[in-house]
Amino acid sequence: MTERFDPATADTRWQRVWDERACFTADDASTKPRSYVLEMFPYPSGRIHIGHVRNYTMGDVLARYKRMTGHEVLHPMGWDAFGMPAENAAMEKGVHPGGWTRENIANMKAQLKRLGFALDWSRELATCEPDYYGHEQALFLDLYAAGLVYRKESSVNWDPIDQTVLANEQVIDGRGWRSGALVEKRKLSQWFLKITDFAEELLEGVQGLEHWPDKVKLMQENWIGKSRGLQFRFKPINFFDEIEVYSTRPDTIFGASFVAVAAEHPVAQAVAADSAEAQAFIALCKQGGTTAAELETAEKLGFDTGLKVKHPFTGADLPVWIANFVLMDYGTGAVMGVPGHDQRDFEFSTKYGLPIARVVATDPADAGAPFQGEAEAGDGVLVNSDFLNGQSVTDAKAAVIARAESEGWGEGKTVWRLRDWGVSRQRYWGTPIPFIHCEACGVVPVPKDQLPVVLPEDVDFQTPGNPLVRHATWKYVDCPQCGKPAVRETDTLDTFVDSSWYFLRFASQPADKPFDREAIAKWLPVEQYIGGIEHAILHLLYARFWTRALARIGMIDVKEPFASLFTQGMVTHETYLRIDNANGQPVYFAPTEIERGGESAKLKADGAPVEIGRVIKMSKSKKNVVDPDAIVATYGADAIRWFMLSDSPPERDLPWSEAGIEGCWRFVQRLWRLFAQFDAATTGEDKAIDRKRDQTVAAVAQDIEALSFNKAVARIYELTSAVEKAQPSASRSAAIRTILLLVAPMMPHLAEEAWSTIGDDLVSLAAWPAVDPALLVEDEVTIAVQVKGKLRDTLTVAKGTAKEELEALALASDKVQRALDGAEVRKIIVVPDRLVNLVA
RNA sequence: GCGGGCGUGGCGGAAUGGUAGACGCAGCGGACUUAAAAUCCGCUUGGGGUUCCCAGUGCGGGUUCGAGUCCCGCCGCCCGCACCA
Q1: A789 band by pLDDT with thresholds 50, 70 and 90
Q2: Does the ipTM exceed 0.85?
Q3: Any idea which nucleotide's C1' is nearest the CA of A666?
């Protein structure tokens, strides 16, 4: 073996061998236990970033480990290739979105190959190709046939200058990102998927996701948001229509001091018909964007219509307001305002001088207690509420619902926060929605034999808006039903649709249908899915929905796509900056422009110091990005892979550092030197090393299966140090060989290179080392001896030493006697093999 | 605003309610070397009267023989909020 490991030659050599021997191609016909390991596929932005490297390294270690433990592994890769950045590139650089995307894919694929990932490239797919999105169109038509697709009006962000629809991220401080115009809400007829039909199923299904993080399950449950409440009608006093409201807190009905309706509500519209002021207020509500965060942080505004309704119990007059915080989409578009126990209502009432009453108190004696500047939404006992007084919130809810139902003015109702999924996008670079609009026949699905509806290539991006709409020929077709001239739908599908079934297409890729049912039965569900926490709700919920929808219409037999989910943290980096003297703004520098000392940093260009800023998520604007390619070129793939796994727990953020990658590089070389010391001919036994080796193998296996790579890494460091210090023996050589196998999933190139002199064939195809269970058990344990809960001494005893003996040994300790200082021992707590606690 | 999460040495972190700081990074000291790099050895939470003692896991309370871990209330940071992916 050479003196140093040289990744520049070894990396490519082994990558070629793996390719040529198709080591990582999944065999559909295999009889081995199967394991489908999947990382969220990337958007082809042009370059792999460190976050991708982290994501794919984790999946790769698991995939390689699974292969070593006898599994047939499916570990595929593809491209989430539709989306806005391609259109932005087209507008900025004049390139075609398709050309730009495909070039990016080629570059990023080469980058992934340089990292040595054990991927089955034979199943590669890109969602922007007709052989993918054509099948998606077919599935969309199937869902349509099953009644799960419909059209309705819905609000979008409208840029009145560019005359175009804006994505939420294109709205900055209420203005269009390019034009700077104040954004308005505008109604458009759009396509929707009936995800709400699955609300109950999706909610119940969460319970069965045993291997999902609790936090993600909780977020999904809250997002679906099942709530039981009262839907009821307020009788009008000085007008004719009843107002139907929905409340999740009917218990607080005696605290109602007003009724508020959404700007789009029929009552609001009726009032506006002969009130210019009301019209102006409704127009005001149309200003601004459509996001929930924007709506909820906006100042609470209202308009008193002058209408009054009658309180169902007290008979009191309640004023009817139009309010900007009431949503037409949720419940009935009208609410009863209970300022004492709802924060929005509280702010609203404070602003407009409406009464604020207390109807819930922690203690009945506090019925007259004032509010401390905010609403009290918590639990308690009903007060000032007639027949409800003294009841708990839960009981009072039931009581009010029962009364309303028996008196016939309302009924208990389950309402979901989850809304149907709007999939229409007024954009070019996405899957065309396969429908045709005919004046005579209405909305007509494109016949399946005419799929795919292919995106035209000859489009221009000189003007804002969707180029499909202004394309000279593309949208003009004959109606499939009546044959008369008609037009194609020009909306394309949300890219979340593309990512809602790609994991099914990986199992098999027939040309004539989206997937093969048997292949899905074999491979799905994905055994381990890995991706960012930012996808905790939307992508994962949509993928779950899509899978259930396909199961419901009888196309597949699996209901939940991902058996285990892991959400990894971001990769962060220090920032380097100077404050610009002229305008006081920070000027950022890239890590490559910096020379980093122990606690300081200076700019290479002028040698003067720069400030080391906060460690934050890598972003172009802060220039704190590092290029994986440059790291691979300097240190090789294994060092960067090792860095991704070391130190930080995978679910937390990982701070990148030059020093850290240097340390990984040194460890690569340290292992190389250790592997060179392997000698099959050595003899002699070293029990301590044998034990340490087997304990490490067992622990590392456990850690990898739990994706606790940082712990596995620490174990490997410990074993390495122990083996380095040990005298030559057969045990030591066996341990060296074991270390090689343990690091093989993490540093596959180094492992292959060393294995080529130590082992047979390829280490990528080798078996995980076996352990002797007898060696895993320690025969001696260290016991903590505490006095009043404070550590005073430790005892080393045989494992399983009896309670009485431990007590005696503890009392015999000088240190314990000194700590007791003559005090009488009142109680002794003994945890066998753990500790003795003397309570004085 | 709403929902979710996180907070432990100079830094990343470890710790089934049971010896806080494993392991790594940085730093300091030493060995080797003409010298440097590489490598190896040692030290490294703070304070003190340094074989020992005290304090200590964001802040304030609580439960427990015992709390980094469980409960309540704060503070700070991060993620998501339905057209970014």
Answers
A1: confident
A2: yes
A3: B38
